[in-house]
TrEMBL record:
EC number: 2.4.99.28
Predominant cellular place of this UniProt entry's protein: membrane
A GO BP annotation: cell division
TM ranges: 37-59, 71-90, 102-123, 168-187, 217-236, 304-324, 344-364, 370-392
The protein, known as: Probable peptidoglycan glycosyltransferase FtsW
Source species: Ornithinimicrobium tianjinense
Amino acid sequence: MTTVTRPGLFGRRGGSPAEGWTVASVGQWLRSPVAPYYLVLASTSLLVGLGLVMVLSASSVSSYAEDGNSYLVFLDQLMYAGVGLVLAVAASRVPVRWWKRLAWPGIIGALVLQGLVFSPLGLDSFQGNRNWLSIGGRTVQPSEFGKLALVVFGAAVLATKRRLIHKIAHATIPLIFPVGIVLLGLVLQGNDLGTGMIMVAILGGLLWTAGLPARWFVGVGAVAAAGIAFLAAGSANRMQRIQVWLGDICSGPQVAGCYQKVHAEYALADGGWWGLGLGESREKWGILPEPHNDFILAIIGEELGLPGTVGVLLLFAVLAYACFRIVHQSEDMFTRLAASGVMVWFLAQAMVNIGSVIGMLPIIGVPLPLVSSGGSALVAAMTGVGLLLALARSLPGAGEALGGRTSTLRRTLAAVPSAESGPRAGARARRSSGPARTARPAQAARSTTRAPRTHDALGRTRRGHGSRGGR
């Protein structure tokens, strides 16, 4: 018996699946048009899954203490993850041309929602900020969806003006003036400097990818830095956080303004190399504020140790690489700009959050994307992931390759042998794989033609042998 070998998944012939995983084969797969799609899907799925597990662990104590139910925060997060999953799947199926058409309606909707924060629907103050709406008994943070709207709108406008991007008037109107300024002003009016900084980073990333001359970033960067310094100087709370960060005055948590910083460092130190174990955190017992939100990375480090925190960093690195590949492989300017905008959104927010937890930056108060607790942030981020998947599907060759997966899977399942074994199974397989057998002439005649009718001596009509007589 001869064995026929066919090319494997990575181009090798024969051998076990493990033999196909070589450095060269992985590199070849990473250069394929479907690699960005699966890298985005895998990295974000793992981040969301890890986030759900850690939200359950970090919030169980405070949920039980406040409401008598250890699963309350987790169930809310799970519900929002389900909503985000539906929106992500729907967004991934929206063609790129429709994303372009949604630019103006999306940004207008974001401006309206952000303006409603100052209406009777807005909460007076939530953790020092006025950036929340109360709708149907639940709170919604419209600025999270404003980030997504800003990415889509900026990509659509700058893609249209790509030949005039070297002119500062075309580069800034209408993206910066008036849309960006109005949206950013509404967010800052609500006292949310962290979200405002992320929006500034998104605008800068879009303009950089569009090809705005580098000399303009010097002036824009100086203006942005001056604005952040002015807003920080006007708040005693922000100045205290900056002093804690720069002054090295935290000899213990009892020092004013040092409580969160010191206990976040305690959590990471207690975790050590390998962590205390999942669910074994000590700081979540009413000690570290916001353990399931802004400081969830500290709980990850305490329970999962260095592998857990490094794993989070690697997943964000994989996501960044996938976004870079979309930008590099795409031939459409909108796709490049939108992918870079989402990449800057996720990475800038992750760096600010991680820097705040480990003490490299002042405590700014932004969640870790896809991981921290928070319904609006999670739903908006997962919708952004759906946009990334739609952009990855539009890459040259990706749509055809992804479209053929279903037929390939169907053929593969059809080739799986049944539970039978032995000579009978082999004979059946040979019959199914060989040429189709033709029916015998007599059987074909009986199956395709009806037996002639005859009449007996009494005049009754009869059919041929084996059939009933008709009346």
